[in-house]
Every structure is written in C-alpha cells, then in structure tokens.
Give the backbone structure.
Amino acid sequence: MAYVDDPVTQRANLDYIKAAMRRPLLERSDEFALAERWRNQKDPKALHVLINSYARLVISVAARFRNYGLPTGDLIQEGNVGLMQAAARFEPGREVRFSTYATWWIRSAMQDYVLRNWSIVRTGTTAAQKSLFFNMRRLRGKIENDGESLTDENRQWIADQLKVGLSDVKEMEIRFAGADQSLNAPLRDTSDDELQDFMADAAPNPEDVVIGLRDAQTRSRWLAEAISDLTPREQQIIRQRRLEDEGVTLESLGKEFGISKERVRQLEQRALNKLRTAMMRRVENRRDLLPTV
C-alpha cells in the first residue's frame, strides 16, 4: 500500500516543488562556471546555485518512483544527495552538460533508497536482480491482459529480456504480489487481537527446558562417575579422544604413551565398553541416556 503523507508534510512538499519549478535552468556556460568555482575554489554559493537550479530535475526523477509506496519527500531528499554527489564529481572539461551527468547520480541514489526501504527483506542484492526489480512492472504492462496472472511463457520472455533466470522472475513476482505485514497489526478494526497472537511458538515451553537441563545434569553426573571407574590411561584416552572439541589422533596418543596407534584404538574400545556397561547399571531404560528434543 502506498505511503500517504500527513497534510502538513503534503503542503511542505508542494511548496518545495513549486519553488523548485520556478527557478530558471542554467545556460551551459553558467553551469560550467559554477561547477569550476565549486570544484577548484570550494565556493559554497556556487554549489548552492547549481543544486537549486537543478532541483526540478530531482523532482522529475522522483515522479518515476512514486509507485513504490515510499514518501515523496524522502525520495526528493535522496535525489538531492545524488545531485550533490554529481556536483562533487562533475568535470567541466569533459564537455558534458551537468544535467545529463547529474541524472545518473540522482536516479542511482533513489534506486538505492527504494531497494533499502521498499521491504524489510533485502531486495536487489545483485545487478541482475536490481534490473529485474525496476523493469519487471514495465515489461508486465506490455504483456498482461485484463489483470490476468503471468504465464510461464510470459515469465520466460521477461527473463530473456532482462537476462535473468526464470526462478528469479517467479520470486520477484511473488515479492510484488504481497507487501510486508506487521505482526502487531490488528486483525480487525473492532478487535485488539494482533497477528502475532495467533502464531504458534516453535520453541520448547519452560517446563521442557527445565526438565531437559535437569536430565542433562543427571547424565553428566553418571558419565563422570563412570569415567572414574577407568584406569588413568583409559581416562586420558577418553577425555582427549571423545570429550574435547578437537580430539587428538590415535597416532599422537600412541607417541605420547610409547605404544602403537592400533594399541591405542584397542584401549579406547575397551574403555568405551566399560563406560557403556557402567552407564547401563545406572538406568532402568537405555532411552534415559538420550537427550530429549
């Protein structure tokens, strides 16, 4: 849904637009002279005249983005930023009109603003997706009839025109079809119920969390008691091989103990069998040894 400014903001925007449209455009020689003064002397008065004279250019470009549901005033301000960037980078010696050069910077600034604010989900992260976002509506207008949905043939035609994948076109079509919806938005005008009130929480409830923590502590105690029944060398093998984030290799333990890695493997297997037997003595059901999900 399109953004609607409050009456005060609307009047302020209208006054700004009227004032901008009344300012005369600069002659080629005048804009070059102003650009030279700003570029070489950093004369703020020259920049002020240059920016204000082409404010109508910003307004013209902003009108092209009015269908994205964003505040007109914000679009204009973003365009003014692009206009100032153009003034900072403009090189009069290239014999290009400032208005021609500035249009690209103004449009780029507005496009970035639209992509950042049109949806809370990031849009147009690649150049191809950006082109698809800003051109899909135009291409849809050429092929749609009576508001019917796009066919696969239509989508493929758009993909070919913009040199993107068919899946990208389908995804963008879905994005355009549904706007962001706040979880705090009321479901009905006559009710205080919000959308989030009816969404199931996939997280475990507090009771399950407490039970899980208690069971984990119990299993940890059982394991510590079972490990204490092992010999010191078996304890070291189990701790270094099974209880550390990055277990050591059989070969490194063999060098430490002065035995072969095959002998270390045998000792490890014997220690694991001892642990399994000791743990089973402590439970009635082997499922009690498994963590709950």
The chain has three domains: 1-118, 121-182, 206-289. The two ends are 42 Å apart (CA to CA). The mean pLDDT is 81. The CA atoms of residues 46 and 233 lie 83 Å apart.
